[in-house]
Specification:
alpha/beta; twelve-stranded mixed beta sheet; four-stranded mixed beta sheet; 20 strands
Length: 337
């Protein structure tokens, strides 16, 4: 096993994953990654070692990671995000501290870090329980989902050096970054450019050999290297002639709800589709939804004991919705004008 690995956890599955990675890195076999399945059936994607190395080196340059850097890996090694942390360590030769993925990755960590990557749930808990440790991190990368409006506001208030990533399994982790405290726009990494088709982002990446990769992400394109993310086209809801993005409604609702939730839709004979709210567990909802536009306000609500989630913690919306029958949805009568 490479000397750059420093295991902080005795979990045998981590050791096995590292051994598998070392063997593959020493061979010419392709790397295979499986998408999260958060927006549809999970798919397998294959990359050469040269492509993995190119992506790793580009990230290392973006975050100025060198052989002397101290980096914490606290993501699942079943995800492309976790796996690419290993590749970045191989590419730069830095010391990588590895622990099991938990909701509080900095709880038992002491000392400064040059780089740590987290999913939004981990950041959420760290902001509330390990803020001083977050402040000792030179670069914090968030991927795997959108930040809530509350957490983004805290990041700005505390002036944390935090970047939100844009990427997917098909692009071997991130191809664009957004400094949360400074901009609402994502900026392309070196060698990446963007275009737009039917309101959705298209990706070109010379280093990875990607040409016109069509995504289902609705964006506001500023130029070939900058965009603002609006939401997913496959989640968009057409209700009464209005097109709304669930993610935009979720951002507005995030300060009002203390438990995980998401916005979806149900067919309706009058409106075509209606906006609905699904909450994990039980939690009080706002006394009214007047802070939302009329067409954004949820008409029905349902509760789920536990959402389906991917290995990286993403909510699997389709899988969660499939478990509910029609009787689970209740009219939010007092919230409708």
């Amino acid at each position: 096993m490479a000397k750059i690995w420093q295991l902080l956890d005795a979990d045998p599955s981590i050791r096995k994953a590292l051994e598998d990675f070392d063997q593959k890195w020493a061979s010419t076999a392709p790397f295979q990654f499986v998408s999260s399945g958060s927006t549809g059936p999970a798919k397998s994607h294959q990359f050469t070692k040269a492509q993995v190395l190119a992506s790793a080196k580009r990230s290392n340059r973006a975050f100025e990671l060198t052989a002397s850097s101290r980096v914490l890996l606290c993501l699942s090694l079943k995800t492309v995000g976790g796996y690419m942390q290993l590749a970045r360590a191989k590419a730069a030769g830095f010391e990588l501290f590895i622990q099991k993925a938990t909701s509080r990755p900095l709880q038992h960590w002491n000392g400064p870090l040059d780089f740590v990557a987290m999913v939004p749930t981990q950041l959420h808990e760290s902001l509330r329980h390990d803020l001083e440790k977050l402040r000792q991190c030179r670069c914090i990368l968030i991927g795997g989902g959108a930040l809530s409006a509350v957490d983004e506001a805290l990041v700005q208030t505390y002036k944390l050096p935090l970047w939100q990533s844009y990427g997917m399994t098909e692009t071997l982790s991130h191809v664009a970054l957004r400094r949360v405290s400074e901009s609402t726009y994502f900026e392309a990494l070196a060698g990446v450019s963007f275009s737009q088709m039917n309101g959705c982002l298209c990706i070109n990446d010379a280093q990875l050999g990607i040409t016109n990769l069509m995504t289902t992400d609705c964006v506001r394109l500023l130029d070939q290297t900058h965009f603002e993310w609006l939401g997913r086209a496959d989640f968009a809801i057409n209700t009464g002639g209005f097109k709304v993005h669930p993610e935009a409604i979720e951002t507005k609702l995030s300060s009002q709800l203390s438990t995980p939730f998401f916005i979806s839709s149900l067919p309706d004979p009058k409106w075509g589709n209606i906006v609905v709210l699904l909450i994990e567990g039980t939690a009080p909802i706002p006394s009214n939804f007047n802070f939302l536009e009329t067409h954004e306000r949820p008409k029905k609500i349902a509760y789920s004991e536990a959402f389906s989630r991917s290995a990286s913690g993403k909510i699997l919306r389709t899988e969660t919705l499939k478990r509910l029958d029609a009787s689970a949805w209740k009219l939010i009568e007092s919230k409708i004008e």
